[in-house]
Amino acid sequence: MTSIASPTIPIALTIAGSDSCGGAGMQADLRTFAVHRVHGTCAVTCITAQNTLGVTRVDALPPEAVVAQIDAVADDIGFDAVKTGMLLDRAIVAAVAEKARQAGWSKLVVDPVMVSRTGAQLIDDEAVATLKNHLLPLGAIATPNRYEAQILSGLAIETLDDMKAAAEKIHHHTRHAVLVKGGAMSGNCHGVDVWFDGDRLEVLQTTAVNTRHTHGTGCTLSAAITANLARGNDPLSAVKAAKQYVTEALHRGLNIGNGQGPVGQGDFRF
Ligand SMILES: Nc1ncnc2c1ncn2[C@@H]1O[C@H](COP(=O)(O)OP(=O)(O)OP(=O)(O)O)[C@@H](O)[C@H]1O
Ligand SMILES: Cc1ncc(COP(=O)(O)O)c(N)n1
Predict the structure, then answer these.
(1) Pyridoxamine kinase/Phosphomethylpyrimidine kinase domain location, by residue (predicted)?
(2) Taking the CB of residue 56, how many other CB atoms lie within 10 A of it?
């Protein structure tokens, strides 16, 4: 039998929940990795029964099962970058944070999935505190949306200046880069993100896309950042390229289901 040598390919790991409608969560992450020509590996944290209208049920995996998936990938294949998404409860957040601390992942993107863009809380209060105090400071880049940034900074966010102040405050806590996302902002700030890494403060502008099919934008953005890091990009250029990608994905939103359809992660040529 002849074996076919495979060329080296960048590898990323997503630690996230499953979304049955395929638009957010690890389904979005793995599709985004593939489009970036990055091999995707995964550790499932929870299974959501979800569609374009909302979430009807969530079942968590035991933290040991999450850690076993991470170890299975790490011990055999390895990865160049990691992202975390929906971690659901305190025990899973704590187990993932402990793994990240022990392993010293340098290219870790923490998407602190806590509150949806519509304002619905997605994880419990204990998990929020553990995420803020134990996992967030280990991430090279944190990507809170407006409501998550409010919780993490303790500041109300209404204006661009508020987004900047929140990014600076969160950085003060984590000592790492922060991207405050503006998908839930209104007016001129809609779709505008703020980056602060302790040195550079940048406003990432885009023309807001007029669509209701936005399910999965946050996951898609953080997965694209992770893929770009896995490919060797520096953090700010990884974020800028990911911002462009998510904007294109919004333009290709899928009009499926009866509610908020998913963004179109596929069909891009790089
Ligand atoms: N209508 C839009 N037009 C342009 N960019 C947008 C729009 N909506 C969201 N974005 C961008 O998508 C990315 C994800 O941001 P958002 O604030 O929506 O995150 P999220 O709340 O985690 O995701 P979701 O909205 O899927 O829950 C950001 O770069 C944001 O600026
Ligand atoms: C399993 C899972 N993970 C994350 C999100 C949030 O997704 P987004 O903020 O990208 O819409 C979601 N709806 N479901």
Answers:
(1) 19-263
(2) 10
52 contacts 263 by C-beta, under 8 angstroms:
no
Q: How far apart are CA 165 and CA 168, in angstroms?
A: 5
Q: Give me the pLDDT at residue 123, please.
A: 86
Active site residue 214: yes
CA–CA distance, 47 with 59 (Å, rounded to integer) = 5
**What is the gyration radius of the CA atoms in the chain, in angstroms?**
17
pLDDT of 252 higher than 80: yes
- The residue annotated as part of the active site, out of 143, 181, 247, 261, is 181
Q: pLDDT by residue (tens digit) across 91-135?
A: 999 999 999 999 999 999 999 999 876 667 788 889 999 999 999
* Helix-helix angle 90-103:63-76, to 10 degrees: 30
Distance 114 CA to ligand 2 centre (A): 9
Q: Write out pLDDT tens, residues 152-211.
A: 999 999 999 999 999 999 999 999 999 999 999 999 999 999 999 999 999 999 989 999
Q: What is the pLDDT of residue 268?
A: 54
List, in order, residues 6 or more apart from 5 with CB less than 8 Å away: none
Q: How many C-beta atoms surround the C-beta of residue 211 within 10 A? A: 15
Ligand nearest to the backbone CA of 25? 2
Q: Residue 118 catalytic?
A: no
Assembly ipTM: 0.97
Ligand 2 pocket, mutate which of 30, 86, 246 (most atoms under 8 A from CB): 86
| Closest to 16 measured CA to CA, from 263, 239, 261, 223 | 223
Q: What is the pLDDT of residue 1?
A: 45
Domains of the chain by range and CATH? 11-251 (3.40.1190.20)
- Centre of ligand 2 to C-alpha 78, Å, is 25
